[in-house]
Design a protein that fits this description.
By secondary structure, this protein is α+β, with helices and mostly antiparallel strands. The protein is built from four helices and seven strands; from the N terminus they run E-E-H-H-E-E-H-H-E-E-E. The protein has helices at 29-40, 53-61, 100-112, 118-129, and strands spanning 4-5, 14-15, 68-77, 90-95, 144-151, 156-166, 171-180. The strands form two sheets. A five-stranded antiparallel sheet has the order 4-3-7-6-5, covered by helices on one side. Helix 2 (53-61) runs antiparallel to helix 3 and helix 2 crosses helix 4. The radius of gyration is 24 Å and the shape is globular.
Length: 181
């Protein structure tokens, strides 16, 4: 049923014809701007709301000066890793070299990271560790190496986030290396 403007109302009010109850809608400029901000700007939201960030940040922040630790997250979409004969739709695993804070970051990756969109995982890790960094909605990463610092000038970690395809394994590999200073 089409809505037509009511003759005794402002242009932003509409009434449904031939209905016993009049349907009206009133939209103020402030309401419109709030709705626009909520629906158009989700990419500008900070990572603080992402539960994935807490273990990733804890891993990086746990690294002492002159130590280096890494996590490696491997994903295969549409098949298993090469060398594994079991037929599956996807496969994933995370390696952390026995470093306990890295195990919690791996757990977060295993529970909430994407298998089919490995680039989104890299963007998510970078956004957690460098909240000022924002990716536009259409960005897709396939092979990338990003270098940045996390922490202060006096204490923190130099971070390397790498995403690349490992053809021998048949997987996308996301590696996060943190070197404390």
């Amino acid at each position: 049923m089409a809505l037509r403007p009511s003759l005794n109302q402002s242009p932003l009010r509409f009434a449904a014809p031939y209905v016993g109850v009049r349907l009206s809608m009133d939209i103020s400029r402030a309401s419109f701007l709030i709705l626009l901000a909520v629906f158009i700007c989700p990419a500008m939201a900070t990572d603080n709301n992402d539960p994935f960030c807490k273990p990733i940040n804890a891993f990086v922040e746990s690294i002492k000066p002159d130590e280096t630790h890494e996590i490696t997250f491997l994903t295969a979409w549409g098949s298993n890793f090469k060398g594994n004969s079991e037929p599956v739709l996807s496969a994933k695993r995370c390696e952390y070299e026995g470093y306990e804070p890295a195990s919690l970051a791996c757990k977060a990756l295993m529970e909430s990271a994407s298998v089919e969109f490995a680039g989104k995982n890299a963007m998510r890790v970078v956004s957690c560790l460098s909240p000022e960094t924002q990716f536009a909605s259409g960005i897709q990463l396939k092979n990338v190496s990003l270098y940045f610092s996390h922490g202060t000038d006096e204490r923190g970690s130099d971070i390397v986030v790498e995403l690349a395809e490992d053809k021998a394994l048949g997987a996308m590999v996301l590696k996060v290396v943190a070197s404390g200073y």
